[in-house]
Design goal:
two-stranded parallel sheet
Length: about 250
């Protein structure tokens, strides 16, 4: 934990966000904080995000790049962190006079935020311009990243991003382009099956988080271990996970 505190202090101003994630009881977390004094926030979740991050050990450090994609699930070196931070574009701080913009962004209503920024008063013109540029950069870079994901075969991940952007930028060109790309995926039978398999695996992982044994976790995967999903990315991941669970159950 000392190492994470050091990373927080060293790179926070450059855009690195250190976040602790656990599904342990609040009392356990409070005791941990009292003993080790983390200087970064810790989130208690009800599920098990580590399954989604393909964590192979505990604890695991996951480095997520500015594009929202996993850069590493190994203990990242300072060089790896600095490389990821090269593409970070820090979001400007909003004055109280533009609190409506901040509120819209907290609700992921970026098109609405752009509309409000276009009506900013003269004294807020400079920061409004800076925030407008940041929102457009965020939207376009996220859209470009989704297209790259699709080209790389990560169809479900691409569809998730496109679906999000379609809502967040609804009424803006970025939102229209994202919505059109998401619809195109769902019109293609094979790509649609990739999305359905990805959704199903996410649901099953949530069920597996509550499984008491490897055998019961294996049963949770049964709906996706079918011929229909066998050739999808999620289906192959589920098959690999099932083999690991079966081996664990037979020990």
């Amino acid at each position: 934990m000392v190492h994470l505190n050091e990373l927080h202090e060293k790179y926070a101003e450059k855009g690195l966000v250190v976040l602790g994630l656990t599904n342990e009881a609040r009392g356990t977390v409070d005791a941990f904080c009292e003993e080790f004094g983390p200087k970064y926030p810790i989130v208690i979740e009800s599920g098990d995000s580590m399954r989604g991050f393909r964590a192979g050990s505990f604890p695991t450090i996951v480095l997520i790049g500015p594009d929202g994609r996993i850069a590493s699930t190994a203990n990242p070196s300072d060089q790896a962190i600095e490389a990821a931070l090269e593409n970070v574009r820090l979001r400007p701080e909003m004055p109280k006079s533009l609190s409506a913009v901040t509120k819209a962004m907290r609700k992921d209503q970026y098109a609405k935020a752009l509309g409000k920024l276009s009506k900013a008063k003269e004294e807020d013109a400079a920061v409004a311009k800076e925030m407008t540029e940041w929102i457009l950069w965020f939207g376009q870079s996220s859209l470009d990243g989704a297209i790259k994901d699709q080209d790389a075969g990560n169809v479900y991940m691409a569809w998730q991003s496109l679906d999000y952007l379609g809502d967040a930028f609804k009424g803006h060109e970025i939102g229209s382009n994202a919505a059109d790309a998401a619809k195109a995926i769902m019109k293609d039978k094979a790509l649609k099956n990739e999305v359905k398999a990805g959704k199903l695996l996410d649901e099953l992982r949530a069920e597996m988080a509550d499984a008491a044994t490897a055998k019961s976790a294996l049963k949770c995967l049964k709906p996706i271990l079918t011929k229909k999903y066998a050739d999808t990315k999620a289906g192959k991941e589920a098959r690999k996970l099932a083999d690991e669970l079966e081996a664990a159950a037979n020990k």
